[in-house]
């Protein structure tokens, strides 16, 4: 039996990838035990009655107890949230690393959040010996991760995977000068600079709409959005929506704008390209690792973001192109091939 350990995944892009992974595993009818966060109990894809699911609190001590109880139960293990098992297992273990914040902690984080990630970094180093291989989404992450933690690059596999939308038939008519940013609003996601720059852009040109996906867990950003809306700026916040509604927003939007200060992948960049959006993105390595954008900007400078909005008004702005391919089948093969009968 294979263990898929995703105990610390409960929202955002990680949850999107987890749902996709579960769906693909279930299609293959593999014999699997899922270890999942109890907060997603009612929001996971359908799982076969032949497979097992354990829901626990996202707690490292409860996770450790689980491994002690089940240490001899699995033919292979995939840890899907950066952290290897807390004990050494007598089986092959893969750990999916998808959080560059462990490597470069944004200065925008509060002091408490910076301390938390430093502690998480220490914990990762302690348990690193308990995994056989690491899986990452890009060569950029592979290089940074290997250098930061002095890991053998031969033990780091680059296997990007991501779900396609149900329909990739891009609509021919998009809302002119519409700018979509699909992201939660953690500090490194850079919403404040984006919103301020868009408002300056709108004041000058009186055109455009900014569409955001900020949920209730970010009250400060929601308050800023509300303030700008009441001041007459065309900012639309759709909050957290299902994949079907999100696809519609991508299909309608002319541009996908992505000002994040750090990403291990940037799922929105790929989704935007697949839905026919031109990409306006931060002039940072993570952008070029996954796509060739249409327009870039310095994400630390509101003036640069404003100028990117200006540049987007050029009718001849180039289309964006992807640089990666979906390797979900390769990942599933890794899990499947050494499965014991």
Structure write-up:
It is a single chain. This protein has 341 residues and is an alpha/beta fold. It has two domains: 2-162 and 326-337, 3-Layer(aba) Sandwich (Rossmann fold), CATH 3.40.50.2000; 175-322, 3-Layer(aba) Sandwich (Rossmann fold), CATH 3.40.50. 38% of the residues lie in helices and 19% in strands. The strands form three sheets. The chain has a seven-stranded parallel beta sheet with strand order 3-2-1-4-5-6-7. It has a six-stranded parallel beta sheet with strand order 10-9-8-11-12-14. It has a two-stranded antiparallel ribbon with strand order 13-15. β11 (253-258), α8 and β12 form a beta-alpha-beta unit. α5 packs parallel to α6 and α5 (191-205) crosses α10.
Nearest-integer average pLDDT: 92
Largest sheet: 7 strands, parallel
First and last CA, distance = 8 Å
Oligomer: single chain
What is the level-2 CATH architecture name of the largest domain? 3-Layer(aba) Sandwich
**Annotation field: number of helices:** 11
What is the β-strand count?
15
- Class based on secondary structure composition and strand pairing: alpha/beta
User: Strands of the largest sheet, in order across it?
Assistant: 3-2-1-4-5-6-7
> Which superfamily, in CATH terms, is the homologous superfamily of the largest domain?
Glycogen Phosphorylase B
Strand content: 15-25%
Rg, nearest Å? 21 Å
The tally of structural domains comes to 2
Write the CATH fold name of the largest domain: Rossmann fold
Instruction: Determine and state the CATH class of the largest domain.
Output: Alpha Beta
User: What string gives the helices and strands in order?
Assistant: EHEEHEEHEHEEHEHEHEHEHEEHEH
Query: Which residue ranges are poorly predicted, with pLDDT under 50 across at least 5 consecutive positions?
Result: none
